[in-house]
From TrEMBL:
This is Uncharacterized protein. GO terms for molecular function: methyltransferase activity. It comes from the Bacteria. It comes from Clostridium botulinum. The keyword Methyltransferase applies. Pfam families: LCM (PF04072). InterPro entries: Ppm1/Ppm2/Tcmp, SAM-dependent_MTases_sf. Keywords: Methyltransferase, Transferase. Signal peptide: none annotated. One of its GO terms (biological process) is methylation.
Length: 85
């Protein structure tokens, strides 16, 4: 994050992952993508910040890409779905 402080992170299959709270540098735009029931629970337990957005869609339904701000530098992370694929 130090090299690209204004980047965007897309967390595929975010679940209740709290990485945003640990790595936020004050400039990141963060997107959590997960199934609607998971996002509903996440919003109840983990409040969103003004630079964090939760999107309730299956990650293979790439229509979620229309819901994110397009930034030159984007990183994609996934702690859950890589194992499933």
């Amino acid at each position: 994050m130090s090299k690209y402080p204004n980047s965007a992170i897309v967390n595929l299959g975010a679940g209740l992952d709290t990485t945003f709270f640990r790595v936020d540098n004050g400039n990141l735009n963060w997107y959590n993508i997960d199934l609607p029931d998971v996002i509903e629970l996440r919003k109840k337990l983990l409040p969103e910040s003004n630079r964090e957005k939760c999107i309730a869609k299956f990650f293979l339904d790439v229509s979620w890409f229309n819901d994110i701000k397009k930034i030159m530098i984007m990183f994609f992370i996934s702690k859950r779905f890589i194992r499933i694929l």
